[in-house]
Design brief:
- By secondary structure, the chain is mostly helical.
- It has six helices and three strands, in the order ααβααββαα.
- Strands 1-3-2 form a three-stranded antiparallel sheet.
- A hairpin with a 2-residue loop joins β2 and β3.
- It is elongated.
């Protein structure tokens, strides 16, 4: 990943409301949420939330799609994978067995859904 892209992505998450919105969207999964519902759940004015969601989108962390009159936002999981991979790429000096605790924290066995490799 390009350094400028990483800086933009991490910068977008370095604000409380955007981080909360990102985590909410990550939690709801691929169906996403309408922008207004994100604002309602986080107690943020709609116009303010639209700005935050636009910043997340420009940073590549969120995607939007239009459904009728609503704009639905989802997390771009490929970007999240890239960010996590960047952070742990050189974990423990290239000895992956030393990173077992980190990997367990990221992917606890109880969170494995049907069809995933446990």
């Amino acid at each position: 990943m390009d350094a400028r892209y990483l800086i933009d992505a991490f910068g977008a998450l370095a604000q409380d409301t955007r981080l909360q919105a990102f985590r909410l969207l990550l939690n709801v999964g691929p169906d996403g949420l309408p922008a207004g519902e994100v604002a309602r759940r986080l107690g943020t004015p709609h116009n303010t939330m639209s700005t935050h969601l636009a910043i997340l989108s420009r940073a590549g962390l969120a995607r939007s799609r239009r459904e009728s009159r609503q704009v639905i936002y989802t997390v771009d999981l490929e970007t999240v994978r890239g960010l996590v991979a960047f952070l742990v790429q050189e974990c423990c000096g290239g000895q992956p067995e030393r990173c077992a605790a980190l990997l367990d924290a990221l992917m606890p066995a109880s969170s494995c859904q049907p069809g995933c490799a446990a």
